[in-house]
Input
Amino acid sequence: MRIKYLYKDGKKRALTMSYDDCAVHDRRLVEIFNKYHIKGTFHLISERMTHENSEIKLSDIPVLYAGHEVSCHSLTHPFFDQIPKAELLHEMLEDKLTLEKACGYPVRGMSYPNGIITEDVLECLKVLGFKYGRSTISTNGFKLPADFMQWTPTCHHSGNIIGKIDEFRNAYYALPLFYIWGHSFELPRNTPTSSWEMMEEFCDKFTATFEDTVWYATNIEIYDYVTALRALELSADRTMVLNNSAMSVWLEVDGAPVEIKPGLTRLV
Output
């Protein structure tokens, strides 16, 4: 008997989009994602949303980002390696509290301002209950992270994402994840590698290429699912699987997808 991991609903590939800062251009980007049924995670700087002239306000969050994920990006976007640990805690806690009040659910992820990750940063995030943190270092690959607190994306959206579609289709290792990040305010610059036309073309080509064979997920959905998948407990003879999570996960057993519901599942 051969057993392999699968994504949700038995799918073998996943796509996630990750956008930072909170800019008025998020509105158009969300429209594009919704058109193609693609999910995004939006890492927000909450202090910028509290001003009278803010283009996106905290009160806009529930409607604007519905169906997507709201995540942290710090309160004011400082350089994390240039402030004391107490200030680090304040930056992340206040951002988390503000965003949770606005969106109505626990905010458990973040992207690192300026891509800065230090031991103090990781320690503070652990204390505050964060489950993942995304860096700005591109791997140009499609592997899942070993450590979600130092999650490296495939590439920025300027990194020839249309050309990478074929690479993703031919990725040979298990559970390939295409992870794209960027800032929506970069798209109106109208360069060959960063424009609304490029983003629309990518979404159109990607969904036409894979249709419903790819899982379109937010960052936290990827984290939750993969964490549950990795926590499965199999009997020594591999005929029984214990799923201690509250969600179903999927395995491929001798070439066929099998749903592993919470609790005990017998494979034979």
User: Anything to note?
Assistant: The first strand starts at residue 3 and ends at 6. The chain has two domains: 13-220, 231-266. Residues 13-220 form a domain with the TIM Barrel fold (CATH 3.20.20.370).
